[in-house]
Write a structure and sequence with these properties.
The complex is a heterodimer of chains A (171) and B (188). Chain A has 171 residues and is mainly β. Chain A is built from no helices and 13 strands. In chain A, the strands form two sheets. In chain A, strands 1-13-3-8-9-10-5-6 form an eight-stranded antiparallel sheet, with no helix packed on it. The chains are: A mainly beta (171), B mainly beta (188). The interface between A and B is large, with 70 and 61 residues.
């Protein structure tokens, strides 16, 4: 058997950016997508690493999350959001950026709503977090846009942040 | 262009290396009418070249329980009380820890409720072929349905030193159409 875990695309930001988008994903031939990011944000305190699929900015997203801030653990959820969540991301130098991994399973199926599970490890930012997000659409996923901050006030990912998207093919 | 990136300055270097020995072993998708379970069974010594296994699941059963019922994982057809599990989970209101000891399977937390909503799980089965160690499993999984949901970090133990040669996946109800299970092997 051949290796089935392959990089699709990667970027290291050369300047602060308000979004990063991976597109043309519906022309790939994988079963799952895995996003790996090492990133921090500008402005404000710890906020969220967010995502949107297929350019959908409607209130079709929701998430349940669990996180710890070094003192206690908590869980909450958000419904009818205009973006889903991947992890809690901090505002610190990119040299101490957090690491985030998200799995987008069976992304080319056109029959189920899409579930994303993810975790963030951002010690310098102050949080460890896990998210499960739902996109209430059955469409195949053709693009993944990453946003930073809060839905009410986006920030930027810092220059030097890295984002890589992998594909996993089930046989 | 496949995987085009439209923001940022592209790096000229290679991306972080993925596991270069991560291979697909088997896949199962539940068809119309549902299925009681999914079992992956080693054929001959087909898994012998791998050190670890990873299960990637999208799973839903037909429970009528408003809170959802549990996904189940067993090895080698062992339904004895040889399993334990610890979990840290969030239900949208609070984070909690709990354990299942001396139970008949590893529990995958409560499966998705709601129309067309599936739970996602990534489950690592470490050193599965060892004949000297009990088997340890770790998982991240859960579901959200826009008003309810569960997210879990779990650790399971099968108190048996046999090499794992089959993996049984089920719900407390019938697995629903489009449930998808994929098994991968990771070499040293």
């Amino acid at each position: 058997m051949s290796s089935t875990y392959e990089p699709i695309a990667t970027t290291t930001l050369g300047s602060d950016q308000t979004s990063v988008t991976f597109s043309s994903l519906n022309t790939t031939n994988y079963t799952d997508l895995v996003l790996v990011a090492k990133a921090s944000i500008t402005g404000g305190g710890a906020a969220s690493l967010l995502f949107r699929f297929n350019g959908d900015t409607a209130s079709n997203y929701s998430y349940t999350r669990m996180y710890g801030d070094g003192s206690s653990a908590a869980s909450d959820r958000a419904t009818n959001q205009t973006a889903g969540g991947i992890g809690i991301i901090g505002n610190q130098a990119v040299s101490s950026a957090g690491t985030f991994i998200a799995s987008i399973q069976n992304y080319l199926n056109s029959t189920t709503n899409k579930t994303v599970i993810s975790r963030g490890s951002d010690t310098a930012g102050g949080y460890v977090s896990t998210y499960v997000s739902l996109w209430r659409q059955t469409s195949t996923i053709s693009s993944l846009e990453l946003k930073f901050g809060s839905i009410g006030g986006f920030e930027s990912a810092r220059s030097g942040s890295t984002f890589t998207l992998y594909g996993i093919k089930a046989e | 262009m496949i995987g085009n990136i439209v923001a940022g300055t592209f790096s000229s270097g290679a991306p972080p290396a993925p596991p270069n020995s991560y291979e697909s072993i088997a896949t199962s998708t539940v068809g119309s009418g549902g299925a009681a379970s999914i079992t992956f069974t080693e054929s001959g010594s087909a898994w012998s070249s791998y050190k670890h296994l990873q299960l990637r699941l999208l799973i839903k059963d037909n429970t009528s329980d408003s809170n959802g019922t549990y996904g189940l994982l067993r090895f080698n057809s062992d339904s004895g009380t040889t399993y334990d599990m610890h979990q840290l989970f969030g239900n949208g209101s609070s984070a909690s820890a709990s354990a299942f000891n001396n139970v008949n399977q590893i529990y995958l937390q409560r499966l998705a409720i709601g129309t067309n909503v599936f739970s996602g799980f990534v489950i690592d089965i470490l050193d599965f072929a060892s004949t000297t160690k009990n088997k340890t499993v770790r998982m991240l999984g859960g579901f959200d349905n826009n008003g309810a949901g569960r997210i879990v970090l779990g650790s399971g133990l099968w108190r048996n030193t046999n090499a794992i040669t089959s993996i049984y996946i089920a719900g407390e109800g019938t697995l629903q159409q489009y449930t998808h299970a994929a098994l991968y092997g990771i070499k040293d």
